[in-house]
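Minutes, project check-in
Item: structure for the 495-residue chain
Input as provided by the requester:
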Amino acid sequence: MRTSYREFVEAQVYRNPCLRGLADFLSRSPYSPSDNVPVHCLDFSLSHEGTTKVIEKTIRLDVCLSDISHSIRAPPEPPIRRIMCIEDINPYTVERLGAILEINPLFFATNINTSFVGIDKAPPPPVVALFPSSFAAPDSLHLHYQRVIKVPTSSGRSQGPFVSQGPGNVSRNVRCLTTLSGTQPGLIRSCCSTLLKALNNQSWICLLLVDSTDAPLVMPSSSTTHDQNYGRSPQVPLQGGFEDFTEMQSYSEFCATAKYDNAPPKSSILRSIFHYYRNLPPNFDPANPSIMALSYYPLKIVAAEWMIYVQLMSCYVKFYEYSFGSSERRSTEADIVELQRWRRRSKQSLHKLYLVEVFLAKHLGPQSTTPQIDNDLSSNPYATLREDYRYLSTQVEHYSRSLEFILPVAATIVQLTESRRSITEAVNVRYLTYIALIFVPLTFASGLFSMQDGFLPGQGRFWIYIVVAVSLVIVVLALSLVTPIVHKRWKQVLQ
């Protein structure tokens, strides 16, 4: 009996512990008919005139896998040149694709396992466990990024650990951030992966794995045991989502068409990529494409998503700079915890951007440090990608330092608040001491005169109790005032 791909992954966990997340993912549930999901494909064909025709279609997974198997055994005519886009991949699809295309398990593990709970609890994911040079592969690219969304505040959840979960059971951690002007942003740890596989001399398959943006936000609860009891909310991009990076049509062109077809559907990463592929990427050769050309539009989309993240960091720098001077403030201790999270989050973001820069340097070659006159970047659109990601890394590092500089200020404010609280408590204790100085002599005198008759209220010698009690109070108050003065003078004499 032939070894399954799942067993192959389990055997590789000993060599690479970072595959443990993929092994657990594959062992979740057995195959069901619902796993034969529709696959969105883009087929490229060359005409006799040399033009490239792009055909978009949706087919069942088994049909697509059958085409791949036939193409591997015998080159078909016409050859298969296909981008195969899978949204929210499931375990069955991983097993079938991995076995047929001989895919390295690290490719699936890097896309599926993006959360790092700590090395004391589980092995780290590949993006943390492996060296950056491992991600400069000639046939694959992983784009890890933070997708900014708007978290609904009407549900009554403030800092709960939302989880974005789709039908393929690929969970993405969602962190709810501090509310800004009544809007609560959230960050989804997202990933877009591209893999190029040559089936024969003429056929190729490009596997594109994207996250589902239609999957609802699920709030897990320890008190609930059924999934239908969880609270669910749709994913809403913050302020309309990322900016379109293609050239805007002119006013006359818009009036002639009167259509909005040129606008990308931002509600879905998959539909956005297919929208941009209406125009072929620069230097795209359908007969022998490069991983750079196939990843051009995913790189541009992810860079646009990173721009929103940078703008969000700028907003939080301004928020913390101005909020510490406000009289109406929430807990400063909570601000310190959130600033520490931002410091750790910024380091992870810089690492993700650095992996992309390593990939670009590997495929584009080293960039010249000598300034060139009239250097037209538009003639080389891939050079602009390098500049864009370098700019993003610089901005994230800049705002990360700004947030880190705010952290000591917040700690100082906490210390000042504690000092003021201690002073207030000391003043309250002093007031209690004054009250005790008055009532303790009265209590002593009443206890002393209660031993004999005749000193009770209404009796003949009650006035003696009043005189003695008032005298004791005066003496005690005088001693309490004179003692600090005498102590201070005595210390001066000794010095």
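Outcome recorded: Residues 222-228, 368-375 have pLDDT under 50 and may be disordered.
No further action items on this chain.
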